[in-house]
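Quick note —
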Amino acid sequence: MENDDVLDPAEGPQQRPQSLMLAFFGNHVLEEGDLCVSSGSVIDVLGRVGVGEPAVRSTLTRMVNRGLLSRQREGRRMYFGLTPHARRILEDGHARIWTRGAVDDAWDGTWTLLGFSLPDSWKSRRHDLRSRLTWSGFGPLYSGLWIAPGEVDVTAVVEELDLSDHVKVFRAQAADLTDIDQMIRDTWDLESIAARYTSFDARWTPHLASEPDAGSGSGSGSGSGSGSDDDPIGTRLRLVSEWLWTIRTDPRLPARHLPPDWPAGPAQETFRRVAARTEEPARRMARELLDTARAR
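Predicted structure written out below.
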């Protein structure tokens, strides 16, 4: 998976257009089969989160050239859909958000170790490998030895980068003499990861201030102060893209080896509550707003 195509780790909560674009297609196209969306609709929705028309058009062209989007003309309009490559990226992100989650309470004590040695001239491939390993939950135990909690299948990553002859992968358990807590602190920047969750929670908790009572509907209240009901499609786009940025560098470390006040759980609860509140209103708005066509 090309995790750099999902979210750039250097970005802040206001992501680049391509990250928002993929979040848009993940929200409204991924589960709709061979659906394509007109450029005008994409311009409209991304405009709601501050991306101008020139940036949207150039990003669409760039993503077509990178094999992430397909393109077809219907009359005078251009429509864009997902390629198989983009679907794999978005399906992985979907599983990361909705299936695996941000908290690992069931770690079995195993680790996946990956060792690699690449020629000095392969700077780009080294960057790609490290970036994809980070998305997969790995951290650098040493410069050429990366480690991730649990059993992580990196076959697709290694094969896509054509690095099978340069990578060795092992499953292991730490010996008693290994201080796992210290190893985790040395390998991952826990303060930075925690700060992302804390910041996300602080930004999105106010969106729940006017949350309707249980059983009162799907969130069609006045929405004063939250913005969720005023523009659910834009709110949900920002929500999902910001959450992906938040979890981007979190390897889902074993909960029992993290501080007791680790903020991933509360932040995930906030994310899921806002997501549940905006899901149906955003879906209704998408049906009314988006100009779509079936891929040929």
